[in-house]
Amino acid sequence: MDISLLLSNILNPPVLFFFLGMMAVFLKSDLEIPQPLPKLFSLYLLLAIGFKGGYEIEESGINPEIILTLLAAIFMASAIPIYTFFILKQKLDSFNAAAIAATYGSISAVTFITASSFLEHQPTPIPFGGYMVAALALMESPAIIIGIILVRIFAKDPKNGDFSWSEVLKEAFLNGSVFLLVGSLLIGILTGERGWKMLEPFTQGIFYGFLTFFLLDMGLVAAKRIKDLKKTGSFLIGFAILIPVLNAVIGILIAKLIGISQGNALLFAVLCASASYIAVPAAMRMTVPQANPSLYVSMALAITFPFNIIVGIPLYLQIIKLLGV
After folding, report:
1. Which residues, 6 or more positions from 28, have their beta carbon under 8 angstroms from its beta carbon?
2. How many CB atoms lie within 10 A of CB 108?
3. Distance (Å, rounded) from C-alpha 168 to C-alpha 165?
4. Between 108 and which of 114, 171, 210, 274 could a Cys-Cys bridge form, CB atoms 3.0 to 4.6 Å apart?
């Protein structure tokens, strides 16, 4: 792998603040982010990326590349939970296997944003389409539904009949993150350039400041979760590193097949490689209470998330260049 790519990603201020948060925990500093603020940072980031994506879709219009990319996004968000479920079933019961598979079938918006920043801060910035935000939004929910279906088919538990499909679908499509992201995307499309100019100082000017604070908090949370990894064992630790790489490579091959640009291919690979630590855990806690949250949350947050932002993003770009995408 090109070491300069790795260094340029690590020496990105938001990523360095992620490490600062982890160091604060390891060195037992009393640094804390007041609890209402991380929620605000998260809402701001979703609003900003959704709005920008909507504006850029309005600017570029719908074309075959966009349609193929969005179909590929839905396909991967549905396929990843299925094949990862059968890998996990070798070592885990159906409840935990389905919850972890759903977690890895969905996406991490913060990893996506970090990858966008990585592309913009290359020595020669690599362009990408704002419509990739629509792909992000489409990949949030299918994994939740697939995870529930897998539990219904493979898990033998009398409590399986207690949950409500309407509640599951409501959580998949109307949870706060998905609702705000899709709503902001639509507002960006409806208001176009006039709306973009009106909100640009808010959605663009202070974007990286909010991202930095959010990653500082994520560093604090990830470091606190590391102790939970003792419960996962070597199989799940290996899974949390190797499956993102496998998913990214499949995503890159699909990107090459449908002929999307290098920047869009990286963002698509990152979406395939990332794991949800907000929307899916919230849904799994409600619908699959038999699964252990300390497994799927700690794997996604304490292993896969830092792996992707430190090693994964530059590694995936290197693979994209090697394959000539």
Report:
1. none
2. 27
3. 5
4. 274
